[in-house]
Amino acid sequence: MNATEPRRRWWPRSVRARAALAAASAAAVILVGTGWWVHHDVYRQSAQIAERQAQTHLLALVDQLKEGSVPVRRSTVPYEVVATGRRAAVAYGGGMEEFDPGTRHVLPAPPKAEVPAPPDDGAAWGYTNCPLDIPARHDAKPWDRFGKDGGTYLGMYDDVRADKLSSDKVAALGIAPDAQLRVYVVVLPHAAEEIAESITKTTDVLLLRAGLVGLVLIAAIAYFTVRIALRPVEAIRVLTASVTANDPRERVTVPATGHEITALATTINTTLQRLDNAAAQQRRFVADAAHELRSPLTTLLASLEVALAYPERTDWPAAATTAARQTRRLQALAEDLLLLARLDTRAPTADPETVDLTALASRLTEQYPLTERPLALTCDSTAPAHVHGNPDECERLLRNLIDNAARHAAHRIQVTIRNQDAWVVLTVHDDGPGVPTEDAERIFERFVRLDDARSRDHGGTGLGLAIARDLAHRHRGTLTLTPRTLGACFRLRLPRAQAQAQAPVEK
């Protein structure tokens, strides 16, 4: 067999066939268990039937003796009637003749009757169960009921007093007037087995036929039921297979039944929508990144080509300055793009450190370079504010907010930090032109710039606020724009951490 050839398995691959086979197997186990229970219960009931037959025969024999009649030998149940003071049996039959009890009784004789007789209390008729030892015989025939070795059998007996009978009945029975009669009835095991076999044979055949028909019906019903139930799944599969990268807008039909397949279709549509949104965002991101890269590259290429075309008239220090500025823009944009790519694919820090935002913000405001134009950058805090996170990512978040405020502030930037219950709230407020209310969320999108007041001439790649919000979400926090009458105010909320004894590490 070839190693690359898939191994053939007896278990079918089709869900319909698997469901039908599983249902048929379960039904087979149930039917086999039921048949076994019925079979054994029939044997138990057959033994009870044999005992009731023996009891009925015993009652009939006692009634015949009380009437002075000697029972006939022909009987379906072995019996023997013995009497005190008599060597031979009074009557026998049903197979007891095999022992020739006409000369000597086989079963023990009863004791002498009590004199005087106990009073008759009128109690209901009863009998006594006892084991009966049947003697072995050397001349047993194959058809004899008791066989060659004899054995011990279940028996029952009842006594009849001769003094309770009339003299004519006593004479007809051939016993002494003071004798006591004992009627034995033997319950043969094979009698119960014969009854059980006759019943179980018919029952087993009926159960086998009904079981086979039932298994076929159960398997067919399970097969077609699963087939009907899986029709929506097949439709979902066909529609899902038609979704391509060029046309990801296809959606599956949601059944109105409200069962599990409805939840499956809803989940698939939600997943397809997320994939569509992610693909659209990726295409938009690639287009925006290409556009942003094209602008400094075009400026850089144009200045270099002009300088090379007219080297004698070129201001080389100015050309070098322009090239360096555009190169720095390209470097900043490349770093931001790489950071966004890492944020999109990297999971949050599994073992975060404790960062003091108060100390971090104070250090950034003290060391922040304000060389282009004079700005007042202050930090207002009343106590340490500890959060869990990555120190480098927290510093990048705050630096992006301060960079954004520095590009658009007129004279002043205010950083405020407060502890509010389980949160640390940091705000960065500038006195610039502000942001329109309708653009409060749009500014957090990648490569978004609004108007001339926030133009590319003042620096920035259009990714700072998008990176800041992603970092806030990675630290289980939020970053929003708070409405203000003057300027723009960004509000950062991060879960508060318990303060630790060690001081934050200075960078």
UniProtKB/TrEMBL annotation:
Q: Name one GO molecular function term.
A: phosphorelay sensor kinase activity
Name the keywords, alphabetized.
Answer: Kinase, Membrane, Phosphoprotein, Transferase, Transmembrane, Transmembrane helix, Two-component regulatory system
| Annotated ranges, domain HAMP | 227-280
Catalytic activity reported: ATP + protein L-histidine = ADP + protein N-phospho-L-histidine
Q: Which GO terms describe its cellular component?
A: plasma membrane
Its annotated compartments are: Cell membrane
Q: Where is the Histidine kinase domain?
A: 288-498
Q: What main location does UniProt list?
A: membrane
**Enzyme Commission number(s) of this protein:** 2.7.13.3
Please indicate if the UniProt record lists Transmembrane as a keyword.
yes
Instruction: Report the InterPro entries cross-referenced here.
Output: HAMP_dom, HATPase_C_sf, HATPase_dom, His_kinase_dom, HisK_dim/P_dom, HisK_dim/P_sf, Sig_transdc_His_kin-like_C, TCS_sensor_his_kinase
Q: Which residues cross the membrane?
A: 20-38, 206-226
Read off the PANTHER family from this record: SENSOR HISTIDINE KINASE TRCS (PTHR45436:SF5), SENSOR HISTIDINE KINASE YKOH (PTHR45436)
- Protein's name in the database: histidine kinase
